[in-house]
Recover the amino acids of this structure.
C-alpha cells in the first residue's frame, strides 16, 4: 500500500488565479494536543479573494496555504488527545491552511459534524454559518416579526444569513443581482437588485418605518445608507469592505474608516446601534470561552442544516488541483452560495 501524500495549494504572492501552485509533500504528523484531519471539503471564501490581492485586513505573509475552513476526518491524534477522535468527521475554522489534503490543528479547535451531513454541504456553513449565526443572534438579536436587510443575499455568508433570519421569523429583504432573484424568492426573501435599483428607496418602500437590522459587508460610503435605513432600536452589523477589494493603498484603512463611523454613530444620542463584527474578535474573551462559543454556534448551525431549517448552497464542487478554475468561478459574480474544493 502507498503511504498517503500531502497535496496543498500555495499562494506565492499577489498573482492571478493561475499563479496558485499545487505542491506535494509529506503528510504532517500529529504533535501533542493536535490532530491531523484528512480534508474532505474546503472552500473559496471572499477572504481568499482579498488575500490573493494582498488586501486582506489581517494579510498573512507570502507564501502561505490559503483556506479559511474545512471538513474532514481525523486520521491521527497526538499525545493527550482522546484516541476516540480518530475516525470522527469534524469541522475546523482556520483562517489559513485549509486548501490541503491533510491539515494539523489543535484538537480543541475541532467541532464534530453530525453523521447525516454531506461534507461539502457542512463545509458551506463553517465560516459562513458561524458568521451568520453570531451576527444574527449575538449582535442584532433579531426577533420574530422583525424586518432585516441582508446585502449580498446570494453570497456564501448571505445565503446562510437570509435562511437563518427567516427561520427566526424575520421578514427578509436581500440585495443581489437579478439572476439570483427567483432563488431568493423561493427562500421567502424579497429581492432588490443592487446593480440597477435605488436600494434605499426600495427598502424604504418595503419597510416605511425602517428595518430592525442591516447586515452590510459592502462598506465604503454606502454604509451611511445602511445606517439611515434602521428603525429606532435597530442594529447595523457591518462586517466587510467588499466594495474596496480592488482599490489601491492600505488594506486596513477601509476597515479603520468603518470602525470610526461605528464609534461615532454609537456616540450619538440615538436609539440605534452599530457594530463591526469580526469572527476573531471573540478571542478577547480568552481562548477557552472563544472556542466554546464557536463550538456552540457551529453546532447550532449544523442542527439547523440537519433539521432542514436551512439548505446548504454548494455553488460548485471542484478538486484542489483545479484551484484556478475554482477561484475564477468564486470571483465571477455569478455564483449562489459557496464554491467547494474536494481533495
Ligand atoms: N467580519 C468577519 O468576521 C467576516 C467573516 C466572514 C466573511 N466576512 C465578509 O463577508 C463578506 C461575504 O463573504 P463571502 O465569503 O460570503 O463572499 P461571496 O460568497 O463571494 O459573496 C459576496 C457577495 O457580495 C456581493 N458583492 C461583491 N462585491 C460587491 C459590491 N462591490 N457591492 C455589493 N455587493 C457585492 C456578491 O454579489 P454578486 O454575486 O452579485 O457579485 C455576493 O453576493 C465578505 O466581505 C467577507 O469579507 C466577514
Amino acid at each position: 500500500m502507498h503511504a498517503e501524500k500531502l497535496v496543498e495549494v500555495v499562494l506565492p504572492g499577489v498573482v492571478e488565479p493561475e499563479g496558485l501552485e499545487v505542491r506535494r509533500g509529506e503528510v504532517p504528523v500529529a504533535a501533542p494536543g493536535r490532530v491531523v484531519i484528512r480534508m474532505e471539503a474546503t472552500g473559496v471564501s471572499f477572504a481568499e479573494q482579498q488575500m490573493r490581492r494582498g488586501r486582506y485586513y489581517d494579510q498573512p505573509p507570502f507564501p502561505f496555504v490559503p483556506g479559511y475552513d474545512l471538513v474532514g476526518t481525523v486520521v491521527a491524534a497526538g499525545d493527550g488527545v482522546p484516541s476516540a477522535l480518530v475516525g470522527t468527521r469534524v469541522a475546523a475554522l482556520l483562517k489559513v491552511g485549509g486548501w490541503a489534503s491533510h491539515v494539523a490543528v489543535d484538537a480543541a479547535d475541532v467541532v464534530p459534524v453530525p453523521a447525516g451531513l454531506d461534507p461539502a454541504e457542512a463545509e458551506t456553513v463553517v465560516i459562513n454559518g458561524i458568521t451568520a449565526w453570531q451576527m444574527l443572534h449575538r449582535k442584532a438579536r433579531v426577533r420574530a416579526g422583525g424586518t432585516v436587510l441582508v446585502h449580498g443575499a446570494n453570497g456564501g455568508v448571505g445565503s446562510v444569513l437570509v435562511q437563518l433570519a427567516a427561520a427566526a421569523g424575520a421578514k427578509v429583504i436581500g440585495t443581489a443581482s437579478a439572476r439570483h432573484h427567483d432563488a431568493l424568492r423561493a427562500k421567502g426573501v424579497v429581492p432588490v437588485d443592487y446593480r440597477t435599483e435605488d436600494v434605499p428607496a426600495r427598502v424604504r418602500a418595503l419597510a416605511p418605518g425602517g428595518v430592525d437590522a442591516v447586515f452590510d459587508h459592502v462598506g465604503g460610503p454606502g454604509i451611511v445608507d445602511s445606517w439611515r435605513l434602521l428603525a429606532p432600536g435597530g442594529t447595523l452589523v457591518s462586517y466587510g469592505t467588499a466594495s474596496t477589494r480592488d482599490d489601491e493603498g492600505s488594506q486596513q484603512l477601509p476597515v479603520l474608516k468603518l470602525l470610526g463611523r461605528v464609534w461615532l454613530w454609537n456616540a450619538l444620542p440615538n436609539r440605534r446601534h452599530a457594530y463591526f463584527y469580526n469572527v476573531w474578535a471573540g478571542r478577547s474573551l480568552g481562548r477557552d470561552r472563544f472556542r466554546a462559543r464557536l463550538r456552540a454556534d457551529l453546532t447550532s448551525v449544523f442542527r439547523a442544516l440537519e433539521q432542514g431549517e436551512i439548505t446548504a448552497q454548494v455553488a460548485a464542487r471542484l478538486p484542489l488541483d483545479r484551484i484556478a478554475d475554482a477561484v475564477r468561478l468564486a470571483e465571477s459574480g455569478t455564483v449562489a452560495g459557496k464554491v467547494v474544493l474536494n481533495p
The first helix runs from residue 46 to 51.
